[in-house]
Amino acid sequence: MRHAARIAQLGDDAAAALRDESVARASAAVQSAAELDPRLAALAAKLDGMVQELAESIAELRRYTDALEADPRRLEAIESRLSVLDGIKRKHGGSIEAAIDERSRLEVQVGATEDIGAAHAVAERERDLRRDDLEKAAARLTELRQAAAERMEAAVAAELQGLRLEGARFEIELRTRSEVMADGAEEAEMMFSANPGEPLAALARVASGGELARLMLAIKTVSADTDRLPTLVFDEVDAGIGGEAATQVGVRLKALGERHQVLVVTHLAQIAAFADHHLVVQKSPGPDGRNVVKVIELRTDDERAAELARMMSGGVTPKALARARELLHESRHATGDGPRKALQRS
Q1: d(C-alpha 67, C-alpha 84), whole Å
Q2: Measured distance CA(28)–CA(48) in Å, rounded
Q3: Which element (helix H / strand E) includes 234?
Q4: N or C: which end of the chain has fewer CB within 10 A?
Q5: What is the full per-residue pLDDT of the chain (346 aa) written as tens digits?
Q6: Residue whose C-alpha is closest to residue 202's, from 218, 214, 191, 215
Q7: pTM score over 0.90
């Protein structure tokens, strides 16, 4: 179509040339001569055939040129369409066949979303069912937590009495969340009051070092069967206590040591006596003036008794040594008030 005008012009020129009557006149002349001389009959027939073929060729050219379109606007529209098709081919596989395959795939996707309203309604029903299941599971978890919290509060309170924290209170506060989460409908926080008359507050904000150590000892004691931590470290667990309270601390630490590795930093012989292994940490001035830290393992009962005696009296005297041996003997047979267990493995 881009060359339609030029082709039409050339067709018209060819038709005009073919309409020249010279061939027709020649045919008529030879036909007349053949009537006079029969030997020209074959040539006359040939020229007559040429006249007929010329006429047919002229008619065919006319039909061809009449069928040509030379509308510039239609030509522009067709070229624009071809440009779009070229872009589609480049984007979707480089061929018309690949582009048709992509169209079929997209038609399937569009068909799948035609009933979007029904699909949305199904999704909402499924969401409501799942939320109902979630809320029921959260309610069951809340009941279990409340029961476990009550058991733990009672057991920890009894342990605190044994650890000579009379008047201290321990509670577990369950705060309801605005939304049910994967771990339940509430958050749990441990609350503590060390002295009578003091309000309960978050454990991390109210307990001193020694109180916190003994409280953690009580918590770890009652949850020993469910606690999965392999190693427990207690520092300053002996702060502000002595006598029977120290013995009760030692009893509980020893019980924890049956299920965990327990590391205790202590200055009380009553607590140290309960340990299965003893390490002495010594500091002394080094050659450059800085302290040198040395760790010594006590391997025999005599070494342990000597160190316990030193801890009690500042020196190793016969009386202190005898008392240290008594402590070692008592620690291997003492049960104290006995630790309370509040939690069970589920």
Answers
A1: 27
A2: 8
A3: strand 231-235
A4: C
A5: 456 666 666 666 666 666 666 777 777 887 887 787 788 788 888 878 887 887 888 788 777 776 665 556 766 776 788 788 888 888 877 788 888 888 888 777 776 666 677 777 888 888 889 989 999 999 999 999 999 999 999 999 988 888 878 888 899 999 999 898 888 899 999 999 888 888 888 887 776 667 777 888 888 888 877 777 888 888 877 777 777 788 888 888 888 888 888 998 888 888 899 998 999 988 888 888 788 888 999 999 899 999 999 988 888 888 988 998 988 888 887 654 444 444 333 2
A6: 191
A7: no
CA 297 to CA 211: how far, in whole Å? 29
Q: Which residue has the tokens 């409908």?
A: 185
For residues 126 and 317, give the distance between their C-alpha atoms in angstroms, rounded to a whole number: 79
The CB density around residue 90, as the number of other CB atoms within 10 Å, is 11
Residue 194: closest CA among 182, 186, 206: 206
Let me know: does 153 contact 192? Beta carbons within 8 Å: no
- Please enumerate in sequence order all residues whose Cβ is within 8 A of that of 159, keeping only pairs 6 or more positions apart, or say none: 217, 218, 221, 222, 252, 339, 340
Contacts 24+ apart (CB under 8 A), 6-13: 7/65, 7/68, 8/65, 8/68, 8/70, 11/61, 11/62, 11/64, 11/65, 12/65
Written in H, E and C, the secondary structure of 59-80 is HHHHHHHHHCCCCHHHHHHHHH
Which residues lie closer than 8 Å to 189 by C-beta, 6 or more apart? 172, 173, 175, 202, 203
Rounded-to-integer distance, Cα 261 and Cα 257, Å? 6
**Rounded to an integer, what distance in angstroms lies between the CA atom of residue 211 and that of residue 190?**
14
Tokens of 301: 């009962």
Q: Residue 223: in which H helix or E strand, if any?
A: none
Rounded distance between C-alpha atoms, residue 138 and residue 178, angstroms: 13
Cβ–Cβ under 8 Å, residues 23 and 50: yes
Amino acid present at 216: M
- Euclidean distance between CA atoms 214 and 162, whole angstroms: 10
